[in-house]
Amino acid sequence: MLNSFSYYKPKSEIEIIETLKSFGDDAKILAGGTDLLVYMKQQIAGPKVLVDIKGVPDFSKIDVDSGGNLIIGAAVTCNDVVENQYIRNHFPVLATAAKTIGSYQIRNRATVVGNICNASPAADMAGAFLVLDAVVIIATEKGNREIPIKHFFVGVKKTSLQQNEFVKAIKVPADYKDAEASYLKASRIKGHDLGTCNAAMSRSKNGKIKIAIGSCNITPVLLPDFDSNNIDLANILTTAMNSIKPIDDLRGSKEYRKHLVQVFIKRLLNGKGHSH
Amino acid sequence: MNSKNNHKIIGNPEQRVDAIGKVTGTAKFAEDYNVLHQLYGKVLRSKYPHAKILSVDTSKAEQLDGVEAVLTANDIPGKKVFGIVVQNQTFLAIDKVRYLGDGVALVAAKTKEIAEQAIALIDVQYEPLPVIADPEESIKTDAVKIHGDDNTFVHHKVRKGDIEKGFAEADFILEKKFKTQFIEHSYIEPEAVLAELAEHGGVKITGSVQNLFSSRRSVAAALNLDLNKVQIIQSTLGGSFGGKDEVMTSMCCRAALLCLKTGKPVKMVNTREESMLESYKRHPYVLFYKWGVKNDGSITAMEIKCIADGGAYASMSPFVTWRSVVQATGPYHCENVKTDIYAVYTNNNYTGAMRGFGSPQVNFAIESMMDELAEKVGKNPIEIRLQNGYERGDVTATGQKLDHNVSYKEVLKKAAEAINFEEKWKQYRASPKTPFKKGIGLASSYRGVSLGAEGTDAVGTIVSVQTDGSVIVSSGITDMGQGAQTQMSQITAEVLGISMERIQFLNTNTSRVPDSGPTVASRGTIMSGSAAKKAAEIVKSTLLDVASEMTGVALQNLDIKNNYLVDVSNDQRLASFSELAAECFNNGKPMYGLGWHKSPHTSWDEEHGQGDAYYTFVYGTNIAEIEVDTETGKVNVVDFVSAHDVGKAINRNTVLGQIYGGVAMGLGYGMLEEFEFENGIPKQLNFDEYLIATAMDVPRIKAIIVENEDAAGPFGAKSIGEPATELAAPAIVNAIYNATGKRIYEIPANLERVLLGHKLTRTGERGSVQKEKEETVNFDSCKIRSTEK
Questions:
Q1: Contact state of B768 with A253 under an 8 Å Cβ cutoff
Q2: B696, B750, B759 ranked by CB distance to A191: nearest
Q3: If DSSP codes are grouped into helix, strand and coil, which group holds residue B393?
Q4: Which of B117, B119, B273, B751 is the mutation pick for testing A, counting most A CBs within 10 A?
């Protein structure tokens, strides 16, 4: 059962910050609400105030800035990303990953930034953004700050966001436009399931391979860069195994997860990164 | 004899009579019923899977503002326990709790919130007892006892021939152990009722109830009321699949008790979590199959032992396991059979009726054994089944001579031809191992129709023609979504010679229709349809008598066709059906018919397990074509054939719906679903972790409807509801073997079992939660996940 709460829908970034400031810990940011409302119903979260960020028009935009970087606003839904032609042409791994989140109906509500902010170890967007070296744009009282996404996740459902801050957008550097990148996810059913584990990979134009692994540690994990001109599979697999600490849960055992990670890395490197 | 061409309505894909209400939202499900001044009832459930109750202090809860009643078992005026065979299930715990879903106390309050607060204020002191979680432990003599002095409460036997002699004749022995899992019914509508004081004493309960008459019997006994003072009205049901029996009896009784105590209407609605925590499941079985076999593939002996986990209460276990014992050999010849099936108590959720009712478990074992046998003697799955399968005139393991059209082989062959089974089977098993491998597998069965020798099997259906020629039909058989109302309407329309639009179907009401037993065992169409046919024939006979007097045309020349009274000698229309109805009324003749249908004779000798168990049988075959990712264990079902002899499809679309839905459920049983416990504590209470097949997981399905009309059913119709779901799992498991050469002995065949052949140990927590905090189960609020800040 939901506890009662007040609802605010500010029209600007400043107003959002002001609202957050006046309610402090009692306030939670609401975007799609597909995670938050479930937590509220289960009494895992009980915010007294919801601050809906969908009132700021810019937040619903997918843009390319003057430097050619892709900017995805905080209210952009997963289906917006799946259907966006520019993303499909130039950053297809984002569409691939977004399409694996929840069901179609959930993807109509859920935002890609929300998927990051929820900071689940299984977050489908995390791996794709990690291997594209994305940057999280954070609105604060003193203006915007940017941090690399690899520093954004700090624990299970914990991010480096500070009080009175919120994520307004995520930026994917122009360097990764048209870069080879792919995403694999193991799930028990084809519909809405959290990944038993997932893995993403990119091969940048300057010869770097990035690999990210989800559902295998307290945060999504980005492995150190590898040299794409000199692939040492054994070393990559060893590095991966040393970087993850999977557990046993309903979705899979740790041994099975370790096995899957190795299969996925091999498939990603072999260009067989199609899901399911 | 196929008389399809003579039928106007039978066999047509008529629109369901409940379709418009359901798609426009005017259908009323139990939660949609609300009345002024209603209170909200809530249940305090157990804190332990097994414990003595030392004390219950309700004083604080009673003092809370807005609370109108707090009740325990002491407040039940009549019989405090219920059960279809063994009466040991409590509405509210007496001295002891036996599983986590046991209710201990009840609250009625002005709002749901107050009710929940009051529940939290009830102080129960427990003395935890050792938990019996494993049926193989429970059956041991030194195990802690859950009821009385024996945990084994069912032992069914079948004895035929001499298995010692049979095994001596065998060239080799095939012996395997299989295991199946708990399954949640997953009806989309959780349990809900509204209980009101009836106008002239007693109670009126409207709710999501499957078996209204058995629920009524238990509620009346508990409340010390006569049956005529307890009226249960079926709301439109959002699914049941066998699941809304005892759990609804309990809810009806609790709501009625609160209603009688407070004098106010009481609404009770389970959340999904409460539903999964309290409701009963499909039985997990441990199955030991030992066959003596000759090198030519014939079977000389079958020794079968199964242990069913009955959970905390007896519920339907005696009947579920009885179907298993009758069907445990499959439709295969064997002169020497010894079958023993036991049901034992544990501190898991109690297990009861679920679509299939004891057949999905044995079918998984039988059909796996059959494929292993084929492999051992160098035959293919079709050859081995054609060699051993039943034909008309054959005698079953229970000594029953099959004297209807035994279409086992016809159905099997039709299914195989539809997907080119034999060629694919040969090709896939010979193909080299690659990361993605194809496989094909089949499973087939015979299944007894209706209740059989379980008990009295009779149904009443009422047809009432109105003075304007419209018609009202009602029955003691409920529609839970399977289409019973549409079947009965079609049969009524066919007999009366009218169109479907004239018929209005009423939901079942225990005070207005005769006790027709439960809506179970795929007996809806064959039983209530037969009763509808008789009811309509009674009314038609009156109408034609009146017509003959009215028109002067001889009775034998009169009929009703396309809503008109016609003279069949010259095909002339004499009057409209409406005019005929008005005339009949004006003549003071009854246009009301109660059709009563009692099943043909069945018999059972419990000691030797011999008898004519069912009055007729149906035959089915499923074939699954799959692709296995051999590196991850992922199985993708790419194609599917489901063939069934239904006798006669009254409504083709309804039959197809049953087949498609049955395959989806069977696929979940085979590959996905498992209601897991850890020492009596469920590991999942919602669909985020209990996974059923989604639309994306259900493959293309080719349904083959075979129609060998059976004298036992209306227009030849038999059954499809349960046959549709009892074969997909073994078909998929056999396909996995065909693809990988690995056999799975424990379902579901999930990713790890397919990859490794076994499941690795897991804990019940979602990974993210487990890492965050050590605390695990929050019993009081019936949440399985720990609360992160």
A1: no
A2: B696
A3: coil
A4: B751
Can you tell me the mean pLDDT for B230-243?
97
The owner of tokens 């065998």 is B170
Nearest beta carbon to residue A253 from set B683, B695, B761: B761
Count of CB atoms situated within 10 Å of the CB of B433: 9
Residue that the structure tokens 């058995």 belong to: B214
Tokens of B738: 């065909």
- Are residues A253 and B765, on separate chains, in Cβ contact within 8 Å? no
Spatial separation of the C-alpha atoms in residues B440 and B427, rounded to whole Å? 10
Instruction: Choose the CATH number for A178-269 among 3.40.50.2300, 3.30.420.40, 3.30.390.50, 3.30.70.120.
Output: 3.30.390.50
Q: Is B559 helix (H, G, I), strand (E, B) or coil?
A: strand
The ipTM assigned to this model is 0.92
Q: Beta strand pairing status for B39-45 and B266-269?
A: parallel
Q: Considering chain B, what percentage of its residues have pLDDT values greater than 70?
A: 95
Rounded to the nearest integer, the mean pLDDT of chain A is 95
**Domain residue ranges of chain A, discontinuous segments joined by +:** 1-52, 178-269
B757 interface with A at CB cutoff 8 Å: no
pLDDT value, residue B744: 96
What's the token pair of residue B171? 């060239």
Distances from the Cα of B629 to the Cα of B100, B626, B663, B742, angstroms: 38, 10, 22, 13
Instruction: Bin B373: left if φ > 0, else alpha if -120 < ψ < 50, else beta.
Output: alpha
| B51-57 and B96-97 strand pairing | antiparallel
Distance CA(B506)–CA(B9), nearest Å, equals 20
The rounded distance, in Å, linking the Cα atoms of A271 and B429 is 28
Q: Which residue of A has its CA nearest to B682?
A: A250
Q: A1-52 has which CATH code?
A: 3.30.43.10
SS3 B164: helix
Residues of A in Cβ contact (< 8 Å) with B750: 188
Classified as helix, coil or strand, B39 is: strand
Domains, chain B, ordered by start: 19-27+458-598 (3.30.365.10), 33-129+191-268 (3.90.1170.50), 285-452+604-756 (3.30.365.10)
Which residues of chain B are within 8 Å of residue A215 when distances are taken between CB atoms? 767
Identify the CA nearest to A57 among candidates A105, A9, A18. Answer: A9
Any chain A CB within 8 A of the CB of B783? yes
Q: Do B697 and A192 touch (CB under 8 A)?
A: no
Pairing of strands A6-8, A49-52: parallel
Nearest CB to A249 within list B116, B752, B762: B762
**DSSP single-letter state for residue B349:** P
Integer Cα distance of A224 and A217 in angstroms: 16
Q: From chain A, pick out residues whose CB is under 8 angstroms from the CB of B626.
A: none
Could you report the per-residue pLDDT of B456-505, keeping only the tens digit for each?
999 999 999 999 999 999 999 999 999 999 999 999 999 999 999 999 99
CA distances from B82 to A56, A183, B511, B521 (A): 60, 55, 21, 21
Return d(Cα B429, Cα B426) in angstroms, integer. Answer: 6
| Average of per-residue pLDDT across B362-383 | 98
CB contact set of B630 (below 8 Å; sequence gap of 6+): B433, B434, B435, B436, B437, B739, B740, B755
Q: Do A255 and B760 touch (CB under 8 A)?
A: yes
